[in-house]
Specification:
about 350 residues; mainly alpha; 15 helices; globular
Length: about 350
């Protein structure tokens, strides 16, 4: 591109946050730094509740994007306006070549589990006080929760072992949803290799291919997934598990790969975590759901959902229950798509 006098364009889902210097926004600053080093046009993609409301009303879930990564929708439109035809996505990195490596390794003995967790926290702590603080909070989560027997864990965690279907979903589909929630998602005793196998087989990666393939086609855009190159995935499956998390350093393998390509501050920054962006996203999603609830007319009853219960869930759903918020979003999209299609077999 540089040889032809063009720049690469980079997109970021994090809203424009130049006025913030908080460490919680480090991904925004890191991406801007990389863009300036490589002369990349850096563009942020933001969303409002009103835009999500429009997505609810107009998106055809049977033909368009079925994922809840709706920052991608305005991003595609912006890319099309620039005549961009190919988008490179980092999808698949977290699952394979840039795996965090935070899973239990090869299901070791109880003593080795506790010792490994202690060693990991000690290497990440800068002081004795910080180490003690981490032990109180993280040891309980990382160790005790992971070593208790399956039956006790299921009683303790509930949703991890048996999916609780929201009340607004009718039995015709609730029974199918329960069958899809396999116990393999429990992370208590999974090793890194086991997690990779589950991620490879559970269908989530393929779902993104299909969803973005459909929505991208409408904007004349084709996606590429460099971190899911077959050779990289096979390599990730073939190397020792401990290389992904070494001496308390998550993503150790990936950091070693890129340490001569990017500034050290970026290479060794905190692991991927976007608390404020996620909170902001959930807020606008819930606002959009309330806009939809107040503006829609239920002239039809849905075969799959109890609309009165759906309305009640929108009002009562806590902001920290993202799974339920996402399920509500899917229900709205299906209901709206069916209503526009006027499918008499489903809408009665």
């Amino acid at each position: 591109l540089a040889e032809s006098g063009q720049n690469l364009t980079g997109y970021n889902w994090i809203p424009v946050l130049d006025s913030f210097e908080s460490s919680e926004y480090y991904e925004w600053h890191n991406s801007k730094k990389i863009a300036s080093l490589e002369n990349i046009d850096h563009i942020a993609c933001d969303l409002t509740a009103e835009e999500v409301f429009e997505i609810y009303k107009n998106l055809n879930i049977f033909l368009g994007d079925t994922l809840h990564f709706w920052y991608e929708i305005p991003m595609q439109k912006e890319a099309r306006s620039k005549n961009i035809r190919t988008i490179l996505s980092g999808t698949g990195g977290d699952q394979f070549i840039s795996h965090f490596g935070l899973s239990n390794k090869k299901k070791p003995s109880l003593f080795k589990k506790i010792a490994a967790i202690h060693h990991s926290m000690a290497s990440e702590s800068s002081s004795l006080a910080e180490l003690l603080s981490k032990h109180v909070k993280r040891f309980t989560i990382s160790a005790i929760k992971r070593i208790i027997p399956d039956r006790i864990f299921c009683i303790y965690s509930g949703n991890h072992c048996s999916y609780v279907v929201p009340k607004f979903i009718r039995s015709i589909i609730a029974t199918k949803m329960k069958k899809l929630q396999a116990n393999v998602y429990r992370e208590k005793n999974l090793g890194i290799r086991d997690e990779m196998i589950i991620d490879y087989l559970d269908g989530s990666i393929q779902a993104r291919f299909e969803s973005w393939g459909l929505s991208g086609k409408q904007n004349k855009i084709e996606y590429r997934y460099p971190l899911l190159d077959r050779r990289l995935v096979e390599f990730a499956f073939g190397i020792p598990e401990e290389i992904f998390h070494y001496n308390g350093e998550a993503r150790f393998l990936f950091r070693q790969m890129i340490q001569n390509l990017l500034p050290e501050k970026i290479v060794y920054s905190d692991t991927k975590y976007e608390p404020k962006r996620v909170r902001h996203y959930i807020e606008i999603i819930q606002k959009a759901q309330k806009l939809w609830k107040n503006g829609v007319y239920f002239e039809n009853k849905c075969k799959y959902f109890k609309t009165d219960e759906l309305i009640r869930e929108i009002d009562l759903c806590p902001h920290n229950n993202y799974d339920k918020i996402a399920t509500i979003a899917s229900a709205i999209l299906i209901f709206e798509s069916l209503r526009r299609e006027k499918n008499e077999k489903i809408l009665e």
